[in-house]
Design goal:
Largest sheet: 10 strands, antiparallel
Structural class: alpha+beta
Order of helices and strands: HEEEEEEEEEEEEEEEEEEEEEH
Distance between the termini: 21 Å
């Protein structure tokens, strides 16, 4: 019966984690460039099940001990574009991420809702300056242009730089932060892409899919909760019967 506690309890923990991830996806459904997450589950190593027969333990099979969250996977599928008409909004069509410098760290993001800081540099608010292939990009003001190759021309029509569009190297680890920012230890230049100005990429969260997953997960959590209550009642009943015999 104790094994039942572990199995059902672990199932509740997994479903709770799943609910948290789904809730975060729903909250960020309107965050530009956000990438949805999925919980990947697995079972703990199987245990050997035996019974005592004629003074000896006899194997009768195996059983999965508990369910665990193996990892939380990010879905990197591209999303649709929204035409805002705002010159500061940029979108990558195809492969790669924008690079945004924050102190010592350079974040990767698909969020292209940029702005200009007090010094005239292209920035992502509350994060840092957008990086070009030669560092910070000075645009001067709102009257700037970006072509399909990512070349940025300032308010005077001069080439201010080329947007750095990169992607994680093969097998590089990606660390995800809130609001669709990523850190990785190694990047390589992206190749198959174009940059569009006046549009930004929406979140790739599919609300219909998320609500369906939410209903399924809530049902699974409730089922585990009910099973746990039944096991507890059976344990209590068994303990009472044993006590009455003694």
């Amino acid at each position: 019966m104790n094994r039942g506690f572990y199995t059902v309890g672990s199932g509740m923990l997994v479903q709770q984690r799943n609910l948290n991830v789904i809730g975060n996806n729903i909250i960020n459904s309107q965050t530009p460039g956000y990438r949805a997450e999925r919980v990947i589950t697995s079972t703990f190593e199987q245990e050997l099940v035996t019974r005592l027969e004629n003074g000896k333990y006899v194997r009768i099979g195996t059983a999965d001990q508990i369910a665990t969250v193996d990892e939380v996977e990010t879905v990197f599928d591209e999303s649709s574009l929204y035409e805002s008409g705002n010159p500061f909004d940029l979108a990558i069509c195809g492969d790669g991420f924008f690079n945004v410098r924050d102190g010592e760290n350079t974040f990767l993001t698909r969020n292209g809702c940029f702005n200009v800081d007090d010094e005239g540099y292209l920035v992502l608010d509350e994060i840092g300056r957008v990086q070009g292939t030669n560092g910070d990009i000075y645009i001067g003001g709102s009257d700037f242009k970006v072509d399909l190759n990512g070349d940025v021309y300032d308010m005077n029509g001069n080439l201010a730089g080329t947007l750095a569009v990169s992607k994680p190297a093969e097998n590089a680890e990606m660390i995800k932060f809130e609001n669709a920012y990523f850190l990785t230890d190694e990047v390589v230049p992206a190749e198959d892409y174009v940059v569009r100005q006046g549009v930004y990429e929406r979140s790739n969260v599919d609300m219909t899919d998320e609500y369906t997953r939410l209903i399924e997960t809530q049902a699974a959590f409730k089922a585990c909760s009910t099973a746990l209550s039944i096991i507890d009642q059976l344990n209590s009943k068994s303990a009472s019967q044993i006590a009455s015999v003694n």
